[in-house]
Predict the structure.
Amino acid sequence: MAKTHITTTVNGDEYEVLCEVDQTLLDVLRDELHLTGTKEGCSSGDCGACSVMVDGRLMCSCLVLGVEADGKSIDTIEGMADGDVLHPLQRNFLELNGLQCGICTPGILIAAKNLLERNPNPTETEIRFWLAGNLCRCTGYDKIIRSVMAAAEEMRGN
């Protein structure tokens, strides 16, 4: 199959990639760019494990073709920390045990970051609603919600 040349920005760095026209953005990130933090869960957009930001919009990368990323800006879990300094969400997930197996965690962190950028003071209900597209089979969600609420409070300076 013929490959298509795309240019995209991922976590602030510009990349040129050759990808097949039927290759998902998830596969381009993992297989071509070797950014393996974004996880494959269901391959049908139902679990949110592969959530990334594309031009500021939260998307399941398993539902986006790699060729659609041409000229776009993508944010993945690899770009969330500032060097060795974890984002408050990442730190609170670790400190409050908001993760277990880790498959869903990158997608949940990306979705939660998107929420807090839009709404720095969400209620528990708003967090639960926003993260409804991210499935976790391990934690039971309470520690995830507490981690997001603690990070939101920290980011507001409380």
